[in-house]
Amino acid sequence: MNNPFFSFTLKAIVVLSLSFGIHLSILGLLELPLFENSIALSYTVNLTLIILIFGVLYMFKKKYRSQLGFLFLAGSLLKFAVFFIVFQPIYKLDNIITKMEFTAFFVPYAIGLILESVSLSKWLNELD
């Protein structure tokens, strides 16, 4: 796979799927509810957003080469907006964001951010 976008997409799907499985396994070992706190939605939305953001950066790699860092930051702003629009209202129904709710959102967000940052830095270094 020479196309960085397809390579990243496959890697993101595999990594977040494995992370989701591990996350559910840990919840199961701790005898906690597996699919509460919108965990599946969180993994799905985070996966979709990191693929979308990487795709936009890949699409604009030549036209906005010197601004790709700012576009990446705009993608992070988009992720925060999605959290406040989609997840915070769900989590704040009882006026408390529990550790489980935070973890359900933050684990896929952090793993996606790390994957996206590492992949993007490797890809940008190859452009030079």
Report on the architecture of this protein.
The protein is mostly helical and 128 residues long. It has one domain (4-127). Helix content is 78%, strand content 0%. It has 4 helices and no strands. It has helices at 4-29, 39-59, 68-91, 99-127. α1 packs antiparallel against α2 and α2 packs antiparallel against α3 (68-91). The model has no long low-confidence stretch (mean pLDDT 87). Keywords: Membrane, Transmembrane, Transmembrane helix. The chain crosses the membrane at residues 12-34, 40-58, 70-91, 103-124.
List the helices and strands and how they pair.
Elements: H1 4-29, H2 39-59, H3 68-91, H4 99-127
Strand content: under 5%
Count of strand segments: 0
Radius of gyration: 16 Å
Number of domains: 1
Keywords: Membrane, Transmembrane, Transmembrane helix
Transmembrane segments: 12-34, 40-58, 70-91, 103-124
